[in-house]
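Example for tutorial group B:
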């Protein structure tokens, strides 16, 4: 029995039996996904399934602030399909591909988390995310990594070579979004590798304490990082999507170099401020 509620489903695939089960629980009108333990991997409010229940998933939408013309997104790690479901309903102009290695996660997402069927807006692919990225260079505007398992971030999705391949997978103005866990003892290592791959063009957004931390890597620097411009764009996005974009903009001050007038990108700017 999970501490947050009662279990309603369990699935185990022979190939992934050593990594634990895929479990579903419910409490107070919210359905949760767990991978091998009681840590919440994904959540869906049953009365509003196309909304984003967890704060970190809402933080992912900050890519809209920096890449308003994005037309494609590649996701690695499906989970409970929160981001895929939200975007399919609210941002159908962005074509999504989501790669998930565990077929039971895909099955549970379809049976218990309202994952839409594949169509012209969404394609769910069973496969190895690292291999898929290597084989599809310069094909996506946004690359979203959300592939924590019960044992943490898989080795094959956290090497320097892997993050280098993420840069290659992006279009000229593409953005990487990596969901990391703040209490992971290897967090600083992962962050330094992303910074190296993206030549320091990195922003860090904490979405909880210690909780999920989103790392944004930019293939090229956004045009306008003045606070006034960021707040103006965030205000418009907040009105459109009912997501706390303004709060997220202010949160960028906590972990990134900045002045009173603008935000700077990553370690290179930090050395000059």
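The residue assignment follows.
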């Amino acid at each position: 029995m999970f501490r947050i509620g009662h279990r309603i489903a369990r699935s185990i695939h022979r190939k992934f039996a050593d990594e634990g089960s895929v479990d579903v629980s419910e409490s107070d009108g919210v359905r949760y996904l767990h991978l091998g333990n009681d840590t919440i991997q994904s959540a869906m409010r049953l009365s509003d399934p196309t909304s984003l229940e967890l704060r970190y998933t809402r933080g992912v939408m900050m890519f809209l602030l920096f890449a308003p013309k994005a037309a494609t997104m590649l996701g690695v790690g499906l989970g409970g399909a929160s981001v895929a479901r939200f975007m399919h309903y609210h941002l159908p102009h962005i074509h999504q591909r989501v790669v998930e290695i565990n077929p039971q996660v895909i099955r549970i997402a379809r049976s218990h988390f309202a994952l839409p069927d594949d169509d012209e807006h969404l394609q769910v692919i069973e496969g190895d995310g690292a291999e898929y990225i290597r084989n599809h260079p310069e094909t996506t505007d946004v690359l979203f990594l959300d592939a924590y398992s019960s044992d943490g971030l898989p080795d094959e999705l956290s090497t320097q070579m892997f993050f280098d391949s993420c840069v290659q997978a992006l279009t000229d103005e593409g953005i990487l979004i990596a969901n990391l866990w703040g209490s992971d003892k290897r967090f600083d290592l992962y962050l330094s590798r992303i910074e190296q791959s993206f030549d320091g063009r990195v922003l860090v957004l904490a979405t909880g304490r210690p909780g999920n931390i989103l790392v944004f890597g930019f293939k090229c620097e956004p045009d306008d990082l003045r606070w006034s411009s960021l707040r103006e764009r965030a205000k418009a996005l907040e009105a459109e999507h009912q997501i706390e974009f303004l709060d997220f903009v202010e949160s960028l001050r906590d972990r990134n170099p900045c002045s009173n007038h603008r935000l700077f990108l990553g370690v290179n700017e930090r050395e000059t401020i």
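The first strand starts at residue 6 and ends at 11. Compare this with the pattern of hydrophobic and polar residues in the output above.
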